[in-house]
């Protein structure tokens, strides 16, 4: 290994953190170009296996791929450096946006309303894309519809967790026999003892943090608890974090619905992982320190899961029952996102026919003309301003 390879990891990941627009799927394309094709740090087979692992785990898949590649290059410290480079640019932008939102009363600015309309188009586009890949048959469509109906009738974070658990049970019995049997092997120099230790820390924090947050009324502990739990249980990538976060911070009065959607839309306009929405929300709740704590809490489960699962990955992937569970969980995620599309996204953003017309146009740019999300955000803000001045 080269003497300065940690700097190499930081340089490569920072480049990606500054340029990787377009969401998790696009991120994986950028990663392949940088890490596999240009730098040749790993081959296509290893890269495909890492993606498969991260798709199986809760949390931000593209960030986890970057963390895993960093670990391959320089161990756990390499994973930390890789995450910092990829994540820090969007963290800084979203924290600054939150501070500006609070300092200059941006909630009353017309372009914030346009950002909410952009969120309508982006979530609708995500639902269609995820539905196509994750609910290709009637049984999985039924699971998605059931999840959506339950979440619309009983909207809460607890119900959402129960929906995911029920989907996992259904998947175990319904899809295990259909699972892929020809699974590639995967190897990485992390011991099973290290993996067990990481998973133990994860379980201890997942159980202990809610208890601690109830016993000690300190805002920083509350923030860490909320974002750590979400980072541990969210399946399906960036867009699915929307309903989980919304259920945790909006009903409790930590963040207003309009503030939440403005941050979500801004997260579309910056490169890097959408999970840095946590940076914005933490800052809105308790300033810059709150933003930093929320960011660490949101991504810490990814580190613990990657370290914990890698030593056991070969055996786990080959189990048809494990694949069956994930098949149904992924379908339920589509339904959860569909419910979130109605509340809070649609009802908080669409107040007139002009708003809906703009949302349709932005959706068409994303879905049919394949424009990147950051470009759609800019177009949405400009057109929103034009519509506002015309209607005044």
From TrEMBL:
| MF GO annotations | chromate transmembrane transporter activity
- What is the membrane topology here? Multi-pass membrane protein
Record's subcellular location: Cell membrane
One annotated Gene Ontology cellular component of this protein: plasma membrane
Mostly located where?
membrane
Question: Which first-to-last residue range defines the signal peptide?
Answer: none
Pfam families recorded: Chromate_transp
Q: Which InterPro entries match?
A: Chr_Tranpt_l_chain, Chromate_transpt
Q: Which residues cross the membrane?
A: 76-99, 111-130, 142-175, 195-214, 226-245, 289-313, 325-342, 348-366, 373-391
Q: Which UniProt keywords apply?
A: Cell membrane, Membrane, Transmembrane, Transmembrane helix
Family, per entry: Belongs to the chromate ion transporter (CHR) (TC 2.A.51) family.
Q: Give the matching PANTHER family.
A: CHROMATE ION TRANSPORTER (EUROFUNG)
Q: What is this protein called?
A: ChrA protein
* Species the sequence originates in: Oceanobacillus arenosus
């Amino acid at each position: 290994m080269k003497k300065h390879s940690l700097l190499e990891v930081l340089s490569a990941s920072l480049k990606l953190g500054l340029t990787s627009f377009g969401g998790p799927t696009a991120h994986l394309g950028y990663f392949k170009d940088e890490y596999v094709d240009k730098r040749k740090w790993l081959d296509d087979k290893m890269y495909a296996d890492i993606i498969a692992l991260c798709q199986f785990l809760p949390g931000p898949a593209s960030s986890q791929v970057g963390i895993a590649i960093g670990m391959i290059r320089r161990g756990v410290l390499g994973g930390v450096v890789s995450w910092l480079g990829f994540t820090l640019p969007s963290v800084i932008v979203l924290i600054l946006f939150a501070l500006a939102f609070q300092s200059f009363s941006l909630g009353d600015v017309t372009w914030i309303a346009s950002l909410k309309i952009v969120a309508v188009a982006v979530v609708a586009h995500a639902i269609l894309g995820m539905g196509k890949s994750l609910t290709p048959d009637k049984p999985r469509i039924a699971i998605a519809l059931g999840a959506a109906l339950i979440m619309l009738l009983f909207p809460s974070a607890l119900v959402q967790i129960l929906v995911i658990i029920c989907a996992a049970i259904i998947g175990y019995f319904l899809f295990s026999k259909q699972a892929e049997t020809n699974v590639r092997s995967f190897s990485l120099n992390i011991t099973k003892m290290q993996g067990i230790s990481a998973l133990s820390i994860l379980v201890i924090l997942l159980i202990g943090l809610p208890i601690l947050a109830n016993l000690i009324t300190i805002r920083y502990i509350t923030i860490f608890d909320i974002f750590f739990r979400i980072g541990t249980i969210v399946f399906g990538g960036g867009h699915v974090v929307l309903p989980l976060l919304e259920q945790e911070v909006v009903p409790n009065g930590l963040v207003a619905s309009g503030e939440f959607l403005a941050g979500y839309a801004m997260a579309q306009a910056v490169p890097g992982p959408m999970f840095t929405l946590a940076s914005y929300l933490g800052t809105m709740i308790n300033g810059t320190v709150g933003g930093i704590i929320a960011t660490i809490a949101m991504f810490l489960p990814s580190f613990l899961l990657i370290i914990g699962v890698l030593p056991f990955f070969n055996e786990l992937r080959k189990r048809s029952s494990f694949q069956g569970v994930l098949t149904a969980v992924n379908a339920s995620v589509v339904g959860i996102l569909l419910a979130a599309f109605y509340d809070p996204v649609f009802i908080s953003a669409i107040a007139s026919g002009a708003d809906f017309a703009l949302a349709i146009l932005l959706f068409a740019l994303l879905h049919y003309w394949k424009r990147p999300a950051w470009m759609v955000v800019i177009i949405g803000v400009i057109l929103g301003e034009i519509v506002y001045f015309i209607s005044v």
